[in-house]
Amino acid sequence: MRTTVRLDEGLLTRAKQEARKRGETLTSLMERGLRLALSGAGGRRANRPVRLTVSEATGGLRPGVDLDDMKSVLDRLDGIR
């Protein structure tokens, strides 16, 4: 079916570039995007609890690291980078 869609010029330019990069038509890119949006797969995801792993390593902090003195911690991190 043929229809007219008004798009932001910048968005249209980016979409054309993406379609060209993928080797597909602008129409097929738009159809795929609409299908994804309408399927709900591209939308918000339900918040699921995150399970954090707990380290069982022993040894503690490096010598000289004091977590109560964040300035010294950040200074050490700057030295690592």
What does this protein look like?
The chain has 81 residues and is mostly helical. The protein has a domain of 31 residues. Helices cover 48% and strands 0% of the residues. It has 3 helices and no strands. It is elongated. The termini are far apart. The model has no long low-confidence stretch (mean pLDDT 84).
Write the layout of secondary structure elements.
Layout: H1 9-22, H2 26-39, H3 70-80
Helix pairs in contact: 1-2
| Shape verdict | elongated
- Major sheet: none
How many runs of DSSP E, i.e. beta strands? 0
Helix content: 40-55%
Number of helices: 3
Which radius of gyration do the C-alpha atoms yield?
Answer: 25 Å
Helical/strand content category: mainly alpha
Low-confidence stretches: none
Q: Roughly how many Å apart are the termini?
A: 56 Å
Could you tell me the mean pLDDT? 84
Q: What is the string of helix and strand elements?
A: HHH
Question: What portion of the residues fall into strands of 2 or more residues?
Answer: under 5%
Overview features:
about 50% helix, mainly alpha, about 80 residues, 3 helices
Short account of what is shown:
The chain is mainly α and 81 residues long. The protein contains three helices and no strands.
